[in-house]
Design goal:
Translocation protein SEC62; 11 helices; translocation; single chain; alpha+beta; endoplasmic reticulum; 9% strand; transport; 312 residues
Amino acid sequence: DPIQVFAERLRDHKSLESRWAVMQENRVEYFRGKDFVSMLKANPDLVKDGLGSDEEEVANLLLRTKLILRCERVVKSLRPGKKKLSKWPARLQLCPDQSFSQNDAFYAWTFERKRPLWQTVLSFLLPVLTLACCLFPLFPHWCKLVVMYLCLTLLVLIFGILIIRWMIFGLSYILLGKRVWFFPNILADDASFSEIIKFWPEPPKEDEKPPKWTSRLAFTCVTIGVVWFCVRHSPDEAARARYQKGVSNIIDEILEWSPKLALSGKVEEAAPANITEATESTQPANEKPDFSNATEGQDHEQEQQQRSEQEI
C-alpha cells in the first residue's frame, strides 16, 4: 500500500517530533498538527504525486485511511500554580471531529512501527542474559571479577556525571544566575537512549524568569552549610579503619578468594583427619589405652601446688 509506506516514512522522519501518551488505556505515539505542517513544508520531496497538493490534504488522506486519529487533551483547564497548559499532555482522548487542524490538535498513529533488526536480536539475547544472571554463582572466578569491576566502573561513571552536573549547575546558578543542566535527560524515566546521552543543555524557556539575587544568596548559604557539615563530621582514618573491621566487605572476600587457595585449604583440613584415622586403624582393637602417663602428670601438678601452699 503506497499510503501505508508513505505514513511509515513520515513517522520515521527525524523532523517530526513526537511523544508517547495514554489514550483509552492504550499507549500511543502522537504528534502535533503544526509540527506536521512545518515538517512537510521543510521537506517537500516527501509528498509524492497523487497523495495531495498541500499539507492539509495529506493529513486528511491519512485520517480517511485511519492511519492517524485526531485526539485532544483530557485536562483542558489550568492546574493550580501553572500559567500555561503543557505542550505534550500525558493523557489524550478521541476527538469527535476527525478533520485536520493545526490549532492545539494532536494526532496519534494507529499502526505499529516495523521492528528493526537490532530489536529482534535484543529480544533473543534478553532471555539468555537473564539465564546467565541466574547462573552467576557457577561462573569461573575470573568472570566474577570482570563483572564486579564492570559494575563498579558503571557506578563510578554514573555518580561522577551526576556530581559534576550538580557542581556546574551550582556554579552557573550562583555566579551567572542561569540554570544550566548538562545531560538534561539523564534522570528522565520516559527518555530514549539517544535523548539520555544528549550532552548540550536545553535552551531556556520563553516564560522562564531569571532567579532573584535573594534566592541565589540563599542557595549559596545552603551549599556552604552542607559542605561544611560534611567536612566537619566526616570520619577520620581511625574511624574508617574501625568501620572496615566491623563490617564484612564482600569485595575483599571476592578478591582474596581463589579456587587454588580453596582447594589447598581443603587438602590441609583433610590431612590431619586422615592421620588420626590411620593411627586409630593401626591400633589393635583389644588393646586398652594407657593412662599411666596422664596420671603421673596429674600427681606431679598436685605436689607442686602443695609445695607452693606450704611456702606461703
